[in-house]
Amino acid sequence: MPAQHPPCESSLSVTLQILSIVFYTFIAFICIGLPIAVLPGYVHDQLGFSAVIAGLAIASQYLATLLSRPSAGRLVDSLGTKPAIVYGLIGIAISGVLTTLAVMLEQWPWLSLGILLVGRVFLGIAQGLIGVGTITWGIGQVGSQHTARAIGWNGIASYGAIAIGAPLGVVMIDRLGFASLGVALLLLALLALLLIRKKPSIPVISGVRLPFWSVFGLIAPYGISLTLASIGYGTLTTFITLFYIDRGWVGAAYCLSVFGVCFILARLVFTNSINRLGGYTVAIACMAIETVGLTLLWLAPGPAYALAGAGLTGFGLSLVYPALGVEAVKQVPVSSRGAGLSAYAVFFDLALAIAGPIMGAIALNMGYPWIFFSAALLSILGLILTVGLSLRKTS
Prior knowledge:
Number of strands: 0
CATH superfamily of the largest domain: MFS general substrate transporter like domains
CATH class of the largest domain: Mainly Alpha
Helix content: over 70%
Largest sheet: none
CATH topology of the largest domain: Growth Hormone, Chain: A
Strand content: under 5%
Distance between the termini: 34 Å
């Protein structure tokens, strides 16, 4: 930006540029959110499969995202950010067509399920392409000094879209039937493809492209810290309802709402603190706050304490991803930025994948409160690792 512009105008201009790009993340995650609350019920009740198969229908998308991360990073670095997003949007459109087709063939449950799962795989691959593509595009558009802001707004777009999409999906199937979700995915993808056609992209950055696994090794220490902190997110969102039932409380949904509101508010208000204080400092402070929140949930004698714990956990977790991401991206060449962001995202995917089975086993053997103690302990380990990385930098 020109130096003569006032700081507030410059900041607003940067934010608007980022928003024009993370709009495509918002569209993608609306499409992810629409079926998330209703798909398991459809597979179980309409197609007649077990709860395990219903869970697989959801998990298949996340597994596809995880496995496609390396390819997504390479594609962003070699072909550019805009083509990666376009391919992702085409994947969403294909997923919409397959979802509608699966509903049309539901009288043959196994065939319908197979088509539905293929559609979920396309949606998962699209998530990986669009997520990495938009962040890389945003950083390239506004400069690496705004990396935290680009990552932060991308997260707000994704979480906000799921929060809107999930209840909207419930309303849609109640009034229009499950096939309407497939049609919605197709129309939203086509709308985004129409809007992106004339949007100027950034040029592909020339230079040496590191192999993905070399990038993965450079990112891994930061990613492991992210995983240790993010297991708290997976634990709370997966088990808070069962925790409330186990304690004989009501209002678990309010707990999730408080978590989400504090998460988004912290990103809106404090993202710029990463540039002022540094990624390590913010990550360490946020992990400490998260640990306090998880400890409150572990010891909570009543719902009010649980709400406070959920709020602190959401507040703490909100900036861990962008704060560590700023430091992680510095470890790789600019020409391999897409691969670096993909490798970093793998560790968040991993946290969500392992939180369910690990914390489920702990709940089964020790009781639900202890899952939050365990998550707090893992958060402390992530904090210690982050302190070590910070000291390594300054030594």
